[in-house]
Amino acid sequence: MRGPGSKERIRRFFLANIGKVVTSIQIRDAIGPNVSEWARRVRELREDEQWLILTHNDRADLSPGQYILTEIPPEKSAVKFSRSISAKLRAEVLDRNGFTCQMCGKCPGEIDPDTGRKVRLHIGHIKDKSLGGKDELSNLRALCSTCNQGAKNITTEKPTRIWLLSQIRRAGQDEQLAVYEWLRVKFTKRRGKS
Ligand SMILES: [Zn+2]
């Protein structure tokens, strides 16, 4: 049998150097004879396996040809995110959120007592993209799967009539008048159009 393939060798190399800046020359040395493949392998780790390997495009203190794997790579993606979120943004969100769910405080790898499964973090939009939310730090946060699911239900399900009426009944008179005024304008406009 042959030794480990080039991808596995790069994997091992980065795992042995977590948090350290490494150079393309070191990566090439680690991979051995298949020199031309190293850049593609690094890209595959970043894009397909979601390893947080940063380059000079992601971090100003890195020069071209320098790379750093900043964290232990997610075991079969303990962190999920949409493709549009760059490695740099992901690192910033996770760093700002301290690698914990922003609703319940669980960390990836912990066992979720509710599900009995390992916690996975999702980097999600606070304001959904379908509602105009952007891929930027202020609109992103880390949530565990359980909280992420709950948040999704709140933002995507339309509130029911009963729920809306109950909220209006609980509100103060000024708020009720504001709702009345908003509805009056909205429906007067609509009638005027037809
Ligand atoms: Zn949570």
Describe it for me?
The radius of gyration is 24 Å and the shape is elongated. The longest helix is centred in the last third of the chain and has 21 residues, at 173-193. The relative contact order is 0.09. The chain has helices spanning 6-15, 24-31, 38-47, 87-96, 145-156, 161-170, 173-193, and strands at 21-23, 53-54, 66-69, 79-81, 121-125, 140-144. The strands form 2 sheets. It has a 3-stranded antiparallel beta sheet with strand order 1-3-2. By secondary structure, the chain is α+β, with helices and mostly antiparallel strands. Zinc ion binds at residues 101, 103-104, 106, 143-144, 146-147.
Shape by Cα distribution? elongated
What would you report as the Rg, rounded to the nearest angstrom?
24 Å
The number of helical segments is: 7
User: What class, by secondary structure content?
Assistant: alpha+beta
- Bound ions, cofactors and other small molecules, one mention each: zinc ion
The percent range for strand residues is: 5-15%
Number of strands: 6
Spatial strand order of the main sheet: 1-3-2
Instruction: Extract low-pLDDT stretches.
Output: none
What is the end-to-end distance?
77 Å
Helix-strand sequence:
HEHHEEEHEEHHH
Reported for the largest beta sheet, the result is:
3 strands, antiparallel
Give the rounded overall mean pLDDT: 82
Instruction: Give the helix proportion (percent range).
Output: 40-55%
